Amino acid sequence: MADLVPSRIEVRDLTLTYGHDTVLDALNLPIPRGKVTVLAGPNGCGKSTLLRAIRRLHTGQKGQILLDNVDIASLGAKDLARQIGLLAQNPSAPPDMTVEELVRLGRYPHQAMLQPWSERDGAAVNRAMDGTGVTGLKTRRIGSLSGGQLQRAWIAMVLAQETDVICLDEPVNHLDMAHQLDCLDLVLKLNQEDGRTIVLVLHDLNLAARYADQLVFVHEGRVRALGQPEELMKPELLAEVFEVDAAIMTDPVHGRPICIPRGRARAAVQEVA
Are residues 191 and 209 in the same domain? Predict the structure, then answer.
């Protein structure tokens, strides 16, 4: 699939280290335009670091990241922020800030010194709040919100940036099942109706397989496999990457593969022993 759809982002031979630890090791990844790409892998494999590198919050020691064939290292900070939005894990803001004030922060890349707040800025904020269902909460302090409400407010802030590429790092972390579906259905709507390129980090393999056009398994700082969920959700690959012994079935509702873990993969158990 990735070969048939032009890449919006191309990660080439990216190596990124923290001290003596190599987090990303000559990693290559095409991210197709207008598709949902989901990064999955065990804890510490480099998923979040890769997402932050795409937004240039981390800089690799080697390699490059291209956005529409332009090295992101050559772009100005605001220019990049107008093209790629990122919601990192566990974002924070003052609890007495209102939802509307939080969402308005998403317009920062579009502001210039001495430039007044414009009608376009207000319209973008209103669209973002409407799209995430938080318009009725706009005067609420974010410290008073539930987990699901707060996550939707953060997503609204990212949407207010009006970027064509949206990166979300574990957006459903700590949410209950209903709010997980609300969040990911909203992301899917942005992709299908607006054609936005979405890059998600998800731990839940079944959610990853349900929502991904391109599923990517990251393992030990490299891309171990990528393709459609049906291609990657294989028992032997899950045993290698996630160290689980799993049966794979087809979801009777959505037709996507689902993983039923039996337990730890035998090789992983023997290694621990």
Answer: yes
